[in-house]
Amino acid sequence: MSMISECAPAKINLALHVTGRRADGYHLLESLVTFTDTGDQLSFSPASTDGFSVSGRFAGNVPREGNAGGDNLVVKARDMLRSVLAGAGLAAPPVHIHLEKNLPVASGIGGGSADAAATLRGVMRLWEIPAGAVDLPTLALRLGADVPMCLAGTPLIARGIGEAIEPLRGLPSFAMVLANPLQPVSTPDVFQALESKANAPLSLPGELIEAAAWIAAIGNLRNDLEAPASRLVAEIAVISGLLAGQGATLVRMSGSGATCFGIFSDSAQAKAAEAALLSIRPDWYFQATTTISGAQACRA
């Protein structure tokens, strides 16, 4: 066995509709999701004992291993998969996992969930476990509602609490700037502040081919969590205004925030906007990126 690498691309909720609430308190969602070519990077190496290390801009915000993994989804994913494999009589030897944390933590772009999904993929490869030996989507859901879609890693529509996934063909690639004021926003608090828990479902026209038509259709959708999140964190509205001021054709918050995205006409405009925004607020997070249109691909 040699070192295995996996990337954990940022998850972008191009739209997120809250359509109801289950009896157990989980909210029902319908979300149009894509992924970027930038993200966290993980590596997996054989070791004499389990280990976890972290580097990158946001390394200081990552929970370390601690007892039973604490809030570290990478460690939880490793341990949960190992437990399932042990029950099936399959070997899961010690592994050292290194996480290069390039995405802001708890920022509405699936950072921890993407890392967990990448961990499931990576240790499966390192341990040479046959694909059919484990029900990975079910295991992913046990780790969190966003992990199954991050495990899929391609454009999709997610429904239910995130577990019902429909691959989406034809979604084009978009030049984009991700923007985050690096202010914490509590997902439970955002849902608590949501005035209506039963909103209209997501609806897309049947035939969408050109990128402009997709952007127009996405513009007619919404993120139901953006208004309550903006009431809790005023910087969300500020950062949305900054993106719009740079000429973004569509600006919206992703997930429960606080990351917003702006779609630009091409990568050159996105990179120019990133540079301009960093000159205005060098203390905030701005990243020009491109969303994927097919198979998963990201760079560290």
UniProtKB/TrEMBL annotation:
Reactions the enzyme catalyzes: 4-CDP-2-C-methyl-D-erythritol + ATP = 4-CDP-2-C-methyl-D-erythritol 2-phosphate + ADP + H(+)
Entry keyword set: ATP-binding, Isoprene biosynthesis, Kinase, Nucleotide-binding, Transferase
EC number: 2.7.1.148
GO BP term, example: isopentenyl diphosphate biosynthetic process, methylerythritol 4-phosphate pathway
GHMP kinase N-terminal domain span: 72-153
GO MF terms held by the record: 4-(cytidine 5'-diphospho)-2-C-methyl-D-erythritol kinase activity; ATP binding
Residues annotated as catalytic: K11, D146
Keyword Oxidoreductase: no
Pathway assignment: Isoprenoid biosynthesis; isopentenyl diphosphate biosynthesis via DXP pathway; isopentenyl diphosphate from 1-deoxy-D-xylulose 5-phosphate: step 3/6
Domain of life: Bacteria
Binding-site positions, ATP: P104, V105, A106, S107, G108, I109, G110, G111, G112, S113, A114
Domain GHMP kinase C-terminal: 219-277
PANTHER family in the record: 4-DIPHOSPHOCYTIDYL-2-C-METHYL-D-ERYTHRITOL KINASE, CHLOROPLASTIC (PTHR43527)
Family: Belongs to the GHMP kinase family. IspE subfamily.
Function: Catalyzes the phosphorylation of the position 2 hydroxy group of 4-diphosphocytidyl-2C-methyl-D-erythritol.
Protein name: 4-diphosphocytidyl-2-C-methyl-D-erythritol kinase
